[in-house]
Design brief:
Structural class: alpha+beta
CATH class of the largest domain: Mainly Alpha
Number of helices: 8
Number of domains: 2
Number of strands: 4
CATH architecture of the largest domain: Up-down Bundle
Shape: elongated
């Protein structure tokens, strides 16, 4: 006998407006920084512009994912497109990782053969880039913790802001000391800022896509807690995964006294177990299948 938890689930927060505004800002800053990189010859500014280019692609993916996530479930896609935010975040992280590696390789090469750089132009275009990044951060700040898609978007803009700061510092060093390698060092700093964060984001999205147990949910503790319920003899085939941010799901086979199937205990037990999972483990969507003790001999021997 199986039953699915009856709680309703609110749809994901709508961040399409935020993402659209930040996308427009990012495109504008991208154009300005490309011009600045050509005028000044700065690798740091070019690296920041390249990062902006991936941001445009990433934010576009994020906007599409946010729109898809609002679509209702169907008989074919029973969760709708809720996982689109995970796919969008993974794609953004992959793009960022590629840019980070390119910047690191090019930066090392320029340390040995630093080209001439126009520091004044670096300052002007760096300030424009930083201003655009700060506006984008302000727009995204309120929703950055809602899901991985928004987290990825905020992370990209935050990295851009740090990159713009690095460009400005390098420009000041070149202007005051004439040390051209400051530009290469700034580009390396941008690469170092990009790579570790994107690796972590890729790891988190892979965790969801591989249907690993949601972070913070201890299945051993869940099993132990369910075994304390009256009439429960065994818990097996216990699985938990995450459809999208804030949407963990859990399934379990619960072995109970044979008498529970005849004396009306199952309805009450189902309410108690699912209330326990929701209140103590923050899992509001659970599917419980009850089995009689006498049925255990018919079960397969590969239970989790």
């Amino acid at each position: 006998m199986g039953a699915d938890h009856g709680h309703s689930h609110a749809g994901p927060a709508d961040h399409r407006g935020r993402l659209a505004v930040v996308l427009a800002i990012t495109v504008s800053v991208l154009v300005v920084e490309v011009v600045g990189a050509v005028v000044s010859g700065s690798l740091a500014l070019l690296a920041d512009a390249a990062h902006m280019l991936t941001d445009v692609a990433g934010l576009t993916l994020g906007l599409v994912a946010a729109a898809l996530a609002r679509r209702p479930p169907t008989a074919v896609r029973t969760w709708g497109y809720r996982r689109a935010e995970i796919l969008g975040a993974a794609a953004q992280a992959a793009l960022l990782l590629g840019v980070g590696v390119y910047v690191l390789v090019e930066g090392v090469q320029r340390l040995f053969t630093p080209p001439e750089v126009a520091s004044t132009a670096m300052v002007v275009f760096g300030v424009v880039g930083l201003a655009g990044n700060l506006v984008g951060l302000a727009v995204l700040a309120g929703g950055r913790s809602d899901n991985m898609n928004m987290r990825a978007a905020f992370l990209e803009v935050a990295n851009d802001a740090l990159g713009s700061v690095a460009v400005l510092v390098a420009a000041v060093v070149i202007a005051t000391t004439g040390w051209l390698r400051a530009d290469a060092l700034a580009s390396l700093l941008i690469g170092v800022l990009i790579v570790p964060r994107t690796v972590r984001l890729l790891r988190d999205t892979a965790h969801v896509l591989l249907e690993s147990t949601p972070p913070g949910l201890d299945l051993d503790a869940v099993r132990a807690r369910l075994l304390t319920a009256e009439h429960v003899h065994e818990v097996h085939d216990l699985h938990a995964s995450q459809v999208a941010t804030g949407l963990p799901v859990l399934t379990a086979h619960v072995v109970v006294d044979d008498s529970c199937f005849h004396d009306g205990h199952l309805a009450r037990m189902l309410d108690e177990i699912q209330a326990c999972l929701a209140d103590e483990f923050d899992v509001e969507h659970s599917t419980i299948q009850f089995e009689a003790v006498s049925h255990a001999a018919h079960e397969h021997g590969t239970h989790a």
